[in-house]
Amino acid sequence: MNINYFRTAYVDHLKAKEKLNHRDKTLAVSTAEIVKPDGKVVVSGRATYLKWI
């Protein structure tokens, strides 16, 4: 897991956007962003998930 913090978010509402970048039988990779109402990214992250068979 990798998380990058870009700025503070002193607002009432934030929006989360996620995307499943890759998925197969044993592996999945996804990314996510938290954005402020003005569209500026507050936090972004990436994770790799391994499925045990």
SSE blueprint:
Layout: E1 2-5, E2 15-23, E3 27-35, E4 41-50
Keywords:
53 residues; mainly beta; Thiol Ester Dehydrase, Chain A; four-stranded antiparallel beta sheet; 0% helix; elongated
Explain what you see.
It is a single chain. With 53 residues, the protein is an all-beta fold. The protein has one domain: Hotdog Thioesterase (Thiol Ester Dehydrase, Chain A, Roll), CATH 3.10.129.10. The chain is 0% helix and 60% strand. The chain is built from no helices and four strands. The chain has a four-stranded antiparallel β-sheet with strand order 1-4-3-2, with no helix packed on it. Strand 2 and strand 3 form a beta hairpin. 0% of the residues are buried.
Q: In total, how many domains does the architecture comprise?
A: 1
**Range of helix content:** under 10%
The secondary-structure element order is EEEE
CATH superfamily: Hotdog Thioesterase
The computed structural class is mainly beta
Range of strand content = over 45%
CATH architecture: Roll
Evaluate the radius of gyration.
Answer: 14 Å
Name of the CATH first level: Alpha Beta
**DSSP summary: helix tally:** 0
Shape: elongated
- Within the largest sheet, what's the order of strands? 1-4-3-2
Biggest sheet record: 4 strands, antiparallel
Mean pLDDT rating: 95
Uncertain residue ranges: none
How many angstroms does the end-to-end distance come to?
21 Å
CATH topology: Thiol Ester Dehydrase, Chain A
- Strand element count: 4
